[in-house]
From TrEMBL:
Originating species: Geodermatophilus maliterrae
Encoding gene, per UniProt annotation: recG
CDD domains: DEXHc_RecG (cd17992), RecG_wedge_OBF (cd04488)
Alphabetized InterPro entries for the sequence: DEAD/DEAH_box_helicase_dom, Helicase_ATP-bd, Helicase_C-like, NA-bd_OB-fold, P-loop_NTPase, RecG/Mfd, RecG_dom3_C, RecG_wedge
Residue segments, region Disordered: 496-532
Name of this chain's protein: Probable DNA 3'-5' helicase RecG
Ranges where the Helicase C-terminal domain occurs: 473-665
NCBIfam families: PRK10917.2-1 (NF008167)
Length: 733
């Protein structure tokens, strides 16, 4: 029978099996089935630790029958059969009601699949599916490694295993599978052919088989992903943009003259890089990574000034209103009269700095939009409101996206589309990104890094305050805060929730971080945890208790923007000594005199979020102090995660730690929006070299105008991945 990768499974398998596979696992074609890899391999004598199974897991285990007992049920008619199976490390009960299980004899080996339950403290499967190994298909089961596939209630692991076998027999091997990877590429990286790798992954005879197959199959994933990104980069590089050359005697020179400090070496280098790229009619697409406090804003401002000097407009997109307002304020401050062209005290050689946020009153919004449209606003700072219809630029030359991790590719593109021609784009992120993530999620951007912090910074000392283990420490924390305030400094107290409602919802001012999710590994699960501490409650408690007499204020997303703005101003001016806030202070807020941050319920925040937060108290010449208050025990995974955050201020190391607690799919979700996850084997943590190599190969493959014309197999793989609008980038290439 002639089989191809696109052959429908119903032509190879029974109609019923094929339908079940399609319905429950979304496996429809031969390609789908072959790309459905085993999750792991079971082998006799070295099996799943039954003890490690969690209630609620749906699993397949390989085990031996140890005891079988049948008894009449007391309260209802019928009988109950209990079968005890074990694998050496543990035992579990299988429970069957009113069914005959004659095959389940002591000593028999089998695969047992079901959802793990618990009855009287013993793990059990009720009505499991099972497949005894000493059956009619001995040859298959005698294999050293038994593949355990991601399965469903209707399609068990062994049905998938048999189906692969059927396919192999029907097609006479995997010879029909064309290898999408060019032979020279395979040779360069020592990779198996695809047919050989598929055979080894589905029917391995040794662990070495599995590993070699994995190396090869990961390449398929990496190269398709990188081809999509390389095509995107190439398409972008072919778009005609507008060069914005540097002009002396304008805003940029004024900014440089007004800076109260000299640029760090890193800022200077990145500045040169940006200046050169802006001076090209090939639009810049650059990611600027820099530690919290490394001084990205001034780098961006200088780039914006260059564009304004060349006659264009620059837009700065910020994730929150607080941050947008702060940027607008500090940019206007730095430019002085140059930011007030058209006003009485303004410099006619300057420009206007306009703030555009969702909360502007209709009249103010009209004025702002008019200045954007007629070009008199050279610098436009705003939130998502910038992306809206009706915001039209006279000549948008540069888009700067601050704290990119809160914006998606689509939003970046929406703003880009507001230029007459593609504008230059600078994306800034304060969360350092592991190299693999930079190469995938941000794979369509070139990268610059600011490693250095401006000199004269005191740094931050962090410690965990584990109130369950060491209750007295909390009192000491408030004393430390009072000492700092007595010395003229200021403090933040951060809480996960606003309060004054009983819903337990968390802060909603800013879009939630993908990395903000705390994990749930504390004993007792999540259900019976108390609600997170709230700003309003904590502020009141502090006011009446440990911080009585200090000038305390609150800041959170439910305040009106004017209110937020004025409270932030009062804090910046030193009128407020202690600001109790939600994560609205997380990104970018800059008050150098603030030196203490106490994070309540620190375990409710993600690693990157904590790192961001503590960046708020490392901004002046005084040494900062960050206290992570938690009820999590020091010995739990959560306690240790917090200890790791306290133990290092290296953002790249923390980004790695953060990545470990997330799943690849979550991270890569931003890149691939096809109908199912294409990344099954590739690991962002472990496969850095492979991803880098695949990136280089992908770039080389797309270096000419022929695109993938000579590699139809690869083109097909990519097409299968890029089912959404991003596929258009490939067609353009
Ligand atoms: P981030 O990179 O986190 O956005 P910012 O741009 O907000 O950091 O800069 C943090 C602080 O450092 C600001 O107060 C800024 O004025 C200051 N700063 C920036 N560059 C320098 C420098 N070269 N020397 C001294 N201070 C600087
Ligand atoms: Mg910033």
């Amino acid at each position: 029978m002639a089989v191809t990768l696109d052959t429908d499974l119903s032509r190879v398998l029974g109609a019923k099996t094929a339908r079940a596979m399609a319905d429950s696992l979304d496996l429809r074609t031969v390609r789908d089935l072959l790309r459905h890899y085993p999750r792991r391999y079971a082998r006799r004598g070295e099996m799943t630790r039954l003890d490690d199974l969690q209630v609620g897991d749906r699993v397949t285990v390989l085990a031996q029958v140890r005891r079988v007992t049948t008894r009449k049920m007391r309260n209802r008619p019928g009988s109950l059969t209990e079968v005890t199976v074990g694998d050496g490390a543990g035992e579990m009960q299988l429970v069957f009601f009113n069914r005959k299980h004659g095959q389940l004899r002591e000593g028999a080996w089998g695969l047992f699949a079901g959802t793990v339950g618990e009855y009287r403290r013993t793990k059990q499967f009720a009505h499991p599916d099972f497949h005894l190994i000493s059956g009619d298909d001995d040859e298959d089961w005698a294999r050293a490694l038994i593949p355990i596939y991601p399965a469903s209630k209707d399609v068990s692991s062994w049905v998938i295993q048999k189906s692969v076998k059927l396919l192999l027999d029907a097609a006479g091997g995997f010879g029909f599978v064309d290898d999408p990877l060019p032979e020279d590429l395979r040779a360069r990286h020592g990779l198996l052919s695809l047919p050989a790798a598929l055979l080894d992954v589905h029917r391995p005879t040794s662990q070495a088989d599995v590993e070699r197959a994995g190396d090869r199959l990961k390449w398929d994933e990496a190269i398709t992903l990188q081809l999509v990104l390389a095509a995107r980069r190439r398409a972008a590089s072919l778009e005609p943009g507008t060069a914005r050359p540097r002009r002396p005697g304008g805003l940029l020179d004024a900014v440089d003259a007004a800076l109260p400090f000299s640029l760090t070496e890193g800022q200077r280098e990145v500045g040169e890089e940006l200046a050169a790229e802006l001076d090209s009619d090939r639009p810049m697409h650059r990611l600027l990574q820099g530690e919290v406090g490394s001084g990205k804003t001034v780098v961006a401002l200088r780039a914006m000034a260059q564009v304004v000097d060349a006659g264009g407009q620059a837009a700065l997109l910020a994730p929150t209103e607080v941050l947008a307002a702060q940027h607008a304020r500090s940019i206007a401050g730095m430019l002085g009269p140059l930011a007030r062209a058209g006003e009485l005290d303004g410099d006619p050689a300057g420009t206007k700095v306009v703030l555009l946020t969702g909360s502007l009153k209709a009249a103010a919004r009209r004025t702002a939009r008019a200045a954007v449209a007629d070009g008199s606003a050279g610098i436009v700072v705003g939130t998502h409101a910038l992306l809206q219809e009706g915001v039209d630029f006279a000549d948008l030359g540069l888009v700067v996206v601050d704290e990119q991790h809160r914006f998606g590719v689509e939003q970046r593109d929406a703003l880009r589309a507001k230029g007459n021609r593609p504008p230059h784009v600078l994306v800034m992120t304060a969360t350092p990104i592991p190299r693999t993530v930079a190469m995938t999620v941000y794979g369509d951007l070139e990268t610059s890094v600011l490693r250095q912090l401006p000199g004269g910074r005191g740094g931050v000392a962090s410690s965990v305050v584990p109130v369950s283990d060491k209750p007295a420490w909390l009192g000491r924390a408030w004393e430390r805060l009072r000492e700092e305030v007595a010395a003229g400094r200021q403090a933040y107290v951060v809480c996960p929730r606003i309060g004054d409602d009983d819903t337990g919802s968390t802060e909603t001012d800013a879009p939630e971080d993908a990395d903000g999710a705390p994990d749930e590994d504390d004993a007792g699960g999540n259900g019976d945890r108390r609600p997170p501490l709230a700003v309003l409650d904590v502020a009141e408690g502090l006011h009446e208790g440990p911080l009585a007499g200090l000038r305390i204020d609150v800041l959170h997303g439910r305040l009106t923007p004017e209110d937020k703005e004025s409270r932030m101003r009062a804090f910046a001016a030193g009128e407020t000594q202690v600001l109790v806030a939600t994560t609205v202070v997380e990104v970018g807020v800059d008050v150098p005199n603030a030196t203490v941050m106490v994070v309540m319920d620190a375990d409710r925040f993600g690693v990157s979020q904590l790192h961001q937060l503590r960046g708020r108290v490392a901004r002046g010449r005084h040494r900062g102090l960050c206290l992570l208050v938690t009820e999590a025990r020091e010995t739990t995974a959560t306690g240790q995660r917090l200890a790791a955050v306290a133990g290092t201020s290296d953002g790249f190391e923390l980004a790695r730690l953060d990545l470990e607690t997330r799943r690849e799919g979550d991270v890569l979700g931003a890149v691939q929006s096809g109908r199912r996850s294409t990344v099954k084997l590739l690991s962002l943590l472990e496969d850095e070299e492979l991803i880098a190599a695949a990136r280089a190969e992908a770039t080389a493959l797309l270096a000419t105008d022929r695109g993938l014309a000579d590699h139809p197999g690869l083109a097909a793989e990519v097409a299968a991945l890029a089912t959404d609008e991003r596929a258009t980038y490939l067609e353009k290439a």
